[in-house]
Amino acid sequence: MTEATDLAERAGDRDPRVGLRAVAALRLLLERLEAVQVRSAREQGWSWQEIADVLGVSRQAAHKKHGRQ
Q: In the Cβ-directed half-sphere of 45, how many Cα atoms lie within 13 Å?
């Protein structure tokens, strides 16, 4: 089982302590994955607007979050 799959399973645990820890770990994993993909998009010449459109946020929000990477 992959880490993400394991975390997703634990996020549904009946024990809130287990579930919340898994949610926090998933949030961190998601942030890392987003950063990797944004970096890849920028390296491939994508504009901030294109990235923002795919992420469902404003151009300004995408740039503010990832512009210094």
A: 0
Nearest by Cα to 33 from 68, 64, 3: 3
Tokens at 7, concatenated: 């975390």
- Going from N- to C-terminal start, the domains of the chain cover 3-66
Lowest mean pLDDT among 2-6, 46-50, 52-56: 2-6
Residue 8 falls in which region: left (phi positive, over 0), alpha (psi -120 to 50) or beta? alpha
Place of tokens 């151009």: 59
Tokens read off for 15: 């024990």
Mean pLDDT along residues 32-51 = 98
Helices 48-55 and 16-43 cross at an angle (nearest 10°) of: 150
